[in-house]
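Run folding on both entries below.
>entry_1
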Amino acid sequence: MLCWIYGGVGLLSLVLFLSLGELYPSIQLVMRIVGIVIAVFFGVVAGTYLKRYRDQAAGLYFGAKSFIDQASAVSCGEITWKDVTGIKRVEGRELLLIDVKSNEKVLKAAKNRAIGRLLERNVALYGTPVVIDGSALNTNFDELRVIFRRYFERQKGKKIHEN
């Protein structure tokens, strides 16, 4: 659903800016460039949502030794439980912050430089590259937190306290 909304916004923006360019010939080139840039941006966003919608492997997978984050375009891949040091949540948002022993290890394992930069931004904002957006998953956020806590406690043999 979101892919169609973003695609529509991109197309509408393109038509709007091209029309404005026709009305104001002095800024026609600027309006065309802005319209194209906005259309491309929303097209990429729509494509990302469409890919995730069609991707049967997208999601979050839990195992005895690790979990695999494939929940978003900026996922970290496989993270071993021995590398996890804690779990936090962001108040007012459905974000789980998974603290790891070495942020650098996760950053080096990024699929490409663009994802690496986005993971670096996660580190700057949240202190960890592993940020899981619960709203991107088809599950209840509280259930997701309970699952993470259980796996973590099982592997570490100790209780954790979430913030």
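>entry_2
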Amino acid sequence: MNIDSTKYHLSESLDIANERPSVGFIVLNTDFTFERDFVRMYTEQKPNYDFYFNRIHFANPMTPESLAAIGDDLSESAAGILPNYDLDLVVFNCTSSSSIVGDDAIEIAINESKPTAKVLSTSQAVVANFKQRGFKKVSVLTPYSEEVSSLLRGYLQKNGVRLFPQCIWISVMTEKLLCFLPMR
């Protein structure tokens, strides 16, 4: 049996660039819910961008030291999202860690491996959302220890968020316990 085959030649001028923005998400390797919740939101809101995930190492329990240590791996984790391709935006998805590591350090680390990407952390997104909605003063409820919660409150205040004096914290020490808190 003889089968004829023909090589297909793509045009040299074919533009393979994706017109949709590409967004990379760095998610803790201990996070149980982010992808599920994000995909549900993406399906409902149908935004016009493509998304890609990578996990970053985190060692429980949630302490200021363990959350700060994540900053050391941000560049490598960002590099693992579509290696050797540019992204339009890289989001570091950990509010407590991003408030401790700091906006500048996060941007520098991610831009080491994704130099053209804009950088956003969940802490920055929280502040921007409060300001966009015109909130004058907010109350804070966190699942973190008092020490981690205090650092998050400090970040919010440093970024212009006024807080009510009463802040509540629960002190859940691992993400597994955190993501399975009853929602009643």
